[in-house]
Amino acid sequence: MTAVAEDPLALTRRLRRDDGPDLLFRPLRHADAERLAAFLEGLSPESRRLSTFDGYDLASARESCDAIARYDKLRLVLEEVPSGRIVGLLEISLVLHPSDIARYREAGIRLEATDCRFGPTLADDHQGRGTGTRVFPLVRDVAQRFGKKRIILWGGVLADNPRAIRYYEKQGFQTAGSFTDTDGTRALDMILDLASATAPVTARDAGRPLDG
Ligand SMILES: CC(C)(COP(=O)(O)OP(=O)(O)OC[C@H]1O[C@@H](n2cnc3c(N)ncnc32)[C@H](O)[C@@H]1OP(=O)(O)O)[C@@H](O)C(=O)NCCC(=O)NCCS
Asked: Which member of 37, 88, 95, 102 lies 3.0 to 4.6 Å from 61 by CB, making a disulfide possible if both were Cys?
């Protein structure tokens, strides 16, 4: 984590797009608080229902930026070039929550220290355009760099979120079980074995930003 904070370029990639501005995939930085707040504030009520954060304001964004390199969470963002607008937040937790371990155990899956959690959120105007699919090989690459072998969904995916379920299935995730959250909503647990995932980082998405 500290190494990432000290050398964010090591995980930075540029996604070239034909239908809009290029996107930079990079670790969240301390200086991002206001741009991250703009991203959170801009999420629609439906996006907030599907992807829940502790808050959607500057205070929450500051907390995320202050947490860089301090905990087990690695936050990556998608930044539009050259505007600098943050249009995606991709969160990876390198440690598991006891409730995840218990739920998966009930489903007959023993989670290990080599498993991590993943939760993606794109700005409303970037959803459903293939961006999540383009960026996933980069997420997988980050997980593998940290020695992870499987990825589970952070808090599962709501059963009434068909786009996200389809998205995860496309990336090779398999349903491990379902559960009812404290507020009565039904969610699915999904897991991806990185050894069985096929789509590599394409040459187009593999270069560092300064490679042009
Ligand atoms: C989930 C999310 C990260 C996916 O990224 P994305 O860029 O929108 O996904 P993609 O466009 O790459 O892929 C979506 C797939 O779902 C399909 N899809 C879209 N709407 C769908 C629907 N209502 N039912 C079924 N499939 C649907 C798309 O056709 C596409 O599949 P295809 O490529 O086979 O045609 C993004 O939509 C998002 O941030 N959503 C809001 C927050 C959220 O739900 N986060 C996940 C919380 S668990």
From this structure: 37
**Distance from the CA of 2 to the center of ligand 1, in angstroms?**
32
pLDDT > 90 in the chain, percent: 79
Task: Please choose from 167, 179, 185, 191 the residue to mutate so as to test ligand 1's pocket, defined by most ligand atoms within 8 A of CB.
Answer: 167
Cβ–ligand 1 contact at 133 (below 6 Å): yes
67-120 tens-digit pLDDT: 887 778 999 999 999 999 999 999 999 999 999 999 999 999 999 999 999 999
Model pLDDT, residue 71:
73
Two tokens at 180? 């009812």
Which amino acid belongs to residue 26? R
The atom number, within ligand 1, closest to the CA of 166 reads 16
Q: 3-state DSSP call for residue 165?
A: helix
| Residue-by-residue DSSP string for 47-85 | HHHHS--S-SSHHHHHHHHHTTTTSSEEEEEEEETTT--
Q: Which residues of 196-211 are buried (b: 16+ CB within 10 A; e: fewer)?
A: ebeeeeeeebeeeeee
For the CA of 127, the closest atom of ligand 1 is: 8
Rounded Cα distance between 32 and 75, Å, is 11
CA 63 to chain centre: 18
- Regarding the beta carbon of 20 and ligand 1, being less than 6 Å apart is answered no
